[in-house]
Design a protein that fits this description.
Rossmann fold; methyltransferase; S-adenosylmethionine-dependent methyltransferase activity; 9 helices; alpha/beta; S-adenosyl-L-methionine; Cation-dep_OMT
Length: 218
């Protein structure tokens, strides 16, 4: 079997199909077109967004925290899967990202009470959030911004809830033992911490640029 066709059919064509399968609304398409031009981490791919929506629906998410607003795109996908009375809290230290997210939510006619946008870093905002009160915590920004706060992020998740981190397979660097750049090192630390935590059941999904998923067990 060639390198282009690994077991399971993980081809570029398969990835493209997964993105096409995840149909985005016009508001999501517009949010993506803005987000790709913003500084920071790229927006979630359609396939990743669809998985976030499914995960949110699977835990009947009512309270979700997003670290990094991603121009609002991840938030729109999460809100699609959350309960109708669910509230998304998105924090970001980049005002441009927050402005883009605010416009994305306004364009999609998201009720003001369903999305709470907070300007600030994880170090500034996490102490103000309630431990064990969230069904999902979604990390969509640079891992360097939240790697050292991973224990606090995990503390936010209720038993049965889920932590997701987007982007760890980007560029294939996490598997390259010679890669020692700060972002790759941060990803390795996050993956190691999650894998070794006996209170978590975790997996890496090779969709988009990679999605690390961990569910907190009782």
């Amino acid at each position: 079997m060639s390198a282009e066709q690994p077991p399971g059919g993980g081809t570029a064509e398969g990835a493209a199909y997964a993105d096409r399968f995840a149909v985005e609304t016009p508001e999501m398409v517009e949010a993506r077109s803005r987000a790709v031009h913003l500084p920071g981490s790229p927006p979630v791919e359609p396939a990743v967004g669809a998985v976030l929506a499914v995960l949110a629906a699977g835990v009947a998410a009512r309270s979700v925290v997003s670290i990094g607003s991603g121009g609002g795109l991840a938030g729109l996908w999460l809100l699609r899967g959350m309960r109708a009375d669910g509230v998304l809290t998105a924090l970001d230290g980049d005002p441009e990202q927050l402005r883009a997210a605010r416009k994305a939510f306004a364009d999609a006619r998201v009720a003001p009470g369903r999305a709470r946008l907070i300007f600030g870093t994880p170090a500034e905002v996490l102490p103000r959030l309630s431990p064990g009160a969230y069904d999902m915590v979604v990390c969509a920004g640079s891992p360097r911004e939240y790697a050292e706060h991973l224990p606090a992020l995990l503390d936010l998740v209720r038993v049965g809830g889920t932590l997701t981190c987007h982007g760890l397979l980007g560029g294939g660097r996490i598997a390259d033992r010679t890669a020692r750049d700060p972002q790759t090192v941060a990803w390795r630390e996050i993956a190691r911490t999650v894998r070794e935590d006996e209170s978590l059941l975790s997996a890496v999904l090779p969709i988009g640029t990679g999605l690390l998923v961990a569910t907190k067990r009782g």
